[in-house]
Amino acid sequence: MAYNVRRKIIGKAFVFVALQAIAAVFFLINGILAQEKSIPNHGSFTDCQMCHAEKYKMWESTGHSKTINRLVEAPGVNADCYSCHTTEGFAAKLQGNKVDLAQKDSLHTVTCAACHKPGSGDNPKMLVRASDKICSECHSQRTVLEGKGAKGVEDTRSFHSGVSCVSCHMSEANHDMKLFRPDDPKTPDPDTCTRCHNDNNRKMRAKQLPEWQEFYKEAMDPIEADMAAISAAIKEKPDLLNADLKEKLNTVRANLFIIQRDGSRGAHNLDYALEIMALATKDIKIIKAAIK
Question: Which residue stretches of the chain have pLDDT < 50?
Fold first, then answer.
């Protein structure tokens, strides 16, 4: 009997010692790993990839990762250009300031840190502002969606004017900033359009989007050809137009620039684009008649 008791006591003691040894080894390994683990510097965008490698790779494929390159190649660069083409310039812009161009050689392209501020709790996803306000600081497409700004054209809202930029350009929280087009065979299901328009199938959306852009192209191509011909004629004879016609031509250029800069070829607001082009066609006809 005494033997069995001693045996149980020794067994329990052995288990206790073994558990202590295992715990010691665990804490030792944990301590070593903690020392070796690199703690991300949340003030440096290059450390984002440590925890967000997939999104970082997406970012590298976007225009945001190359914005500063355009400044190197462009003439007449000033502080305003840096406000949208660099992270530091964008941060200064949000504060109502301009970037110090004396520091331009140390500035970064538009990185994760331009839109996200770790530790910020004012907006979801640690955004520096609400998502659409961030986009609209540098991108003019919101104006087209709302159908505003064209001289001589009534405001023409798009049925997408109430949709946020990220709803379409960051589907599934992707950071490629690209639409999952319904007419692209490589696009997975669901595509960007049918994700919201679940009352219609992908086949319908795949037909609709190219049709919009074809309508835009059919209207824009002759306009751009006429504008090129007018510009060539004026270059040859600078005083070809009187003051009224010069003002009309400048209005046509400014209005067309709105939808050309938009870049969606009618997808953002086809009705607005067609209204602008209809007025441009009318005014171009008057200008062409005057310079014959």
Answer: 1-3, 5-6, 8-10, 13, 15-17, 25, 27-29, 31-37
> Which H, E and C letters describe 69-123, residue by residue?
HHHHHCCCCCHHHHHHHCHHHHHHHHCCCCCCHHHHHHCCCCCHHHHECCCCCCC
Three-state DSSP at 127 gives: strand
User: What are the backbone dihedrals phi and psi of residue 191, each rounded to the nearest 5 degrees, phi first?
Assistant: -80, 175
For the chain, the domains span 42-138, 149-292
> Distance between CA 140 and CA 254 in Å, rounded?
14
Tokens 């998502």 belong to residue: 131
Question: Do 197 and 205 contact (CB within 8 A), yes or no?
Answer: yes
- Full-model pTM: 0.78
pLDDT for position 85: 93
The CATH number fitting domain 149-292, selected from 3.30.420, 1.20.140, 1.10.490, 2.30.29? 1.20.140
